[in-house]
Amino acid sequence: MDTCECINTSESHLGPISEVRFQPRTTIFATSSPDKTVKLWDSNNPRTELLDLVGHKGVVKSLDFHPNETLLCSSDSFDVIEVWDLVKCIRLKNFMAGGQKIRFQPVFGKFLAIANGNAITVLDIQTWMVQNRFQGHSKEIRSMCWDAQGQKIASVTEDCARVWSIAVRGQYLHEYKANGKRFQSIIFHPRYPNVLVIGAFQDIELWIPETEQVYLIPSHTKATVTGLAACVQNQFIASCSSDHTVKIWK
């Protein structure tokens, strides 16, 4: 960023914003809201919305851009996923599949991962048929992410973290128990691809699944690390928590 200036939009959603995602390699970003809409914006000219995608009947919970094509998927509280063509500005398809969180496979964009309840469903976006399904969590999935190569998925519930491979049907590769630490968020480390970063109560944990090593980083005193994000370019990690703070780690 050239400056740290905050630019506000003159238009907005009618409700709180539930998620924001940037379109890869562009200045375009999308926002979702309980007002049942998805809006697109240009960060170079954010005062006016580019598109207002209307069609959801329920609260829009999650959204994601395809890494290579001009597609966007969004999911709502009625378990409906909408597929949007951003060039033609039309809805291509909608179907029932759940989706507390939805994420396209990085790099290739061949699959869409859908976290719903205690399971993850992986769809082939050419056919929209189920390619794989990961079950076994005993509680609701709080966070889910792909690795940078698009071959593995990591997920956390309050009581454990797991790593899955799209090449292995249904069975997790690694598991790490929370032991009362209340996991909330997970990402792959931007510098070390074999390391998972987990947000828990007060701490960030670095977990190496292959060796089962864990390193504890005290991070947010008397608060839960509710979200994590990684920047591949500068290899920074951002954490946000219930204490209303965001911290940057390197």
Automatic annotation (TrEMBL):
Concerning Pfam families, the annotation shows:
WD40 (PF00400)
Q: Which SMART domains match?
A: WD40
Membrane-spanning regions, if any?
Answer: none
SUPFAM superfamilies annotated for this entry? WD40 repeat-like (SSF50978)
Q: Which domain of life is it from?
A: Eukaryota
The signal sequence is: none
Q: Does the keyword Nucleus apply?
A: no
What GO molecular-function term can you cite, just one?
A: transcription corepressor activity
WD repeat residues: 10-51, 53-86, 234-250
Protein's name according to its UniProt entry: Uncharacterized protein
